[in-house]
UniProtKB/TrEMBL annotation:
Pfam families: Aa_trans (PF01490)
Alphabetically ordered keywords of this record: Membrane, Transmembrane, Transmembrane helix
Record-linked InterPro entries: AA_transpt_TM
Domain Amino acid transporter transmembrane per the UniProt entry, residue ranges: 43-120
Membrane topology: Multi-pass membrane protein
Transmembrane segments: 74-96
Record's keyword annotation contains Nucleotidyltransferase: no
PANTHER family the UniProt entry points to: AMINO ACID TRANSPORTER (PTHR22950), PROTON-COUPLED AMINO ACID TRANSPORTER 4-LIKE PROTEIN (PTHR22950:SF460)
Major subcellular site: membrane
GO molecular function, one term: L-amino acid transmembrane transporter activity
Localisation: Membrane
Protein name: Amino acid transporter transmembrane domain-containing protein
Length: 135
């Protein structure tokens, strides 16, 4: 390159072309099964998992249900309870699907909740990759 005013050569330095995250191609990610590589000392049964989900969803907030029904009314209270329960179940389902997809994409056997957030930022669009450590 040369300067437009006086034809003096200009040295141009480009940034690094190294990727921030190694992304396997789609074929490699599709072949990786995180369940085959996962080794758990004490895996939970389906019943244990259901109990943990109920305990996490209801928690101590169940103690406030009578007051909520008193303020909302019986019919709206029942409708709202089932609606919010369905929304919470759907959100947990999306989180599990995202965790499984990220396990395949990053070829990691298992990811916790914070690990899912960090991996989602790392393999996401470039503008959000810098926030991965905050996730």
């Amino acid at each position: 390159y040369k300067c437009e005013k006086n034809d003096v050569p200009i040295t141009v330095q480009n940034g690094s072309t190294l990727p921030l995250v190694e992304r396997p191609n789609d074929e490699e990610a599709a072949l990786y099964d995180p369940f085959e590589h996962r080794k758990l000392a004490h895996p939970t049964s389906d019943l244990d998992t259901l109990i943990h989900l109920l305990k996490g969803s209801l928690g101590s907030g169940i103690l406030a249900m009578p007051l909520a029904f008193k303020n909302a009314g019986l019919f709206f209270g029942l409708f709202a309870t089932f609606f919010i329960g369905a929304v919470c179940t759907y959100c947990v389902h999306i989180l599990v699907k995202c965790a499984h997809a990220l396990c395949r994409r990053t070829q990691t056997p298992s990811l916790g909740f914070a690990d899912v957030a960090e991996a989602a930022f790392l393999v996401g669009p470039e503008p959000v990759q810098k926030y991965a450590r905050l996730a």
